[in-house]
Design goal:
It is globular and about 65 Å long. β9 (201-202) and β10 (207-208) form a beta hairpin. The strands form four sheets. Strands 1, 2, 3, 6, 13, 14 and 15 form a seven-stranded mixed beta sheet that branches. By secondary structure, the protein is an alpha/beta fold. It has two domains: 2-139 and 293-351, D-Maltodextrin-Binding Protein, domain 2, CATH 3.40.190; 140-291 and 356-395, D-Maltodextrin-Binding Protein, domain 2 (3-Layer(aba) Sandwich). The longest helix is centred in the first third of the chain and has 16 residues, at 2-17. It has helices at 2-17, 21-24, 39-50, 65-77, 93-98, 111-116, 119-124, 157-167, 183-195, 213-225, 239-247, 259-267, 306-316, 319-329, 341-348, 359-374, 380-395, and strands at residues 27-32, 55-60, 85-89, 126-127, 130-131, 134-140, 142-146, 173-176, 201-202, 207-208, 251-256, 275-278, 290-299, 332-333, 350-351. It starts with a helix and ends with a helix. α9 (183-195) crosses α16 (359-374).
Amino acid sequence: MRILFWGCLVALLALSLARPASRDSDALSVLMEPDGTGVWRELIAKYNRDHPGLSVRMVEGPPATNLREDLYAASFLSGTAGYDIVYCDVNWVPKFAAAGWLLDLTGRISDEDLRDYLPASLQAGSYRGRLYRVPAFTDAGVLYYRKDLVSTPPETFAELVSLSMQYRTPERWGFLWQGKQYEGLVTVYLEVLWGHGGEWIDAAQQRVLLDRPEAVRALEFLKSTVGTISPPGVTNYVEEDTRILFQSGHAVFLRNWPYVWTLMRRSRAEIIDRIGIAPMVHAEGQWSAATLGGWGFAVSKFCADPEAAWRFIDFMTRPEQLQAVQRRQGRIPARRNLVPPEMKSILDSARMRPPIPAYAQASDILQRWLSSAITGSVTPDLALREAARETRLLLGN
């Protein structure tokens, strides 16, 4: 019923937000995130001034990534060019490409640009060896810490817990993370899972690996932090909740994304001189891994003028435009030369989420059971056994 409800809602939103721009107007359209800084409007206006002829029109969608994904999908399913250019999250590529909704862009990027793009970002834009999305920005999970309290950042989960307990006070928690039932919870769990040597889905063999000891240990760790080193309300926190608390001095450690660093520096908060950046922790004998995120541009197969769409994508992924967004929004460009030095080692360890067409459904399953476990409704072992069972059914195993 939940899926049916959202499907109907998204269809209505698609009809209200997206008119077939390529058929009924002289502009190509692209659905974007809310443009709070105005930088996207400025860049698109610049492109339209510099490229007379077929212009580009931006449609501002809802802030939730999954709702914009659903709006794109609803448009494609209608068989119209509601959106010609796709501002595409890393997780959308397998689903959209497998459905035949994106044009193959293999061979469009010059050798010089291919060498400049981060390999993981290029891989995240590919499906079955073909490129469907040109990288624009990259993202990865980061561990922020109070370097005025902690001289050397922790490397292991045990060290994180020990330092959190040592420097916790009635006004200051140890460790903040995103525990609400949404995609952010999946990204946090994956970093803890990989840090324990575990896996979620082997995409190549369509194997589900959630009901294994390392996966259970990872979930047990997250659950154990609630009410001890993390506030009880962490099970309802999203990125901004945790950023605001950490920036206000109410935590020793924070797991979040690189945008937090830019916002804290821009705010000139007193705490910025006391903040350090480190990779996410791992278990003894294992390795740190960050969940890869990021955005790029693709071309809808329904696009009225693919060559014009490509000219726009080529313009938007030039260093000048990427740096403009970086200055205003804090996004990290997916080009090697534009990655801040303090983020390079973390991005080098970033890993993709399973590149499967049914990713959204698999994530929904995992979110539900992770949330049930960390809120105490079920045990971690039962939650992961059920998540594994449902995911195997989803993948046809």
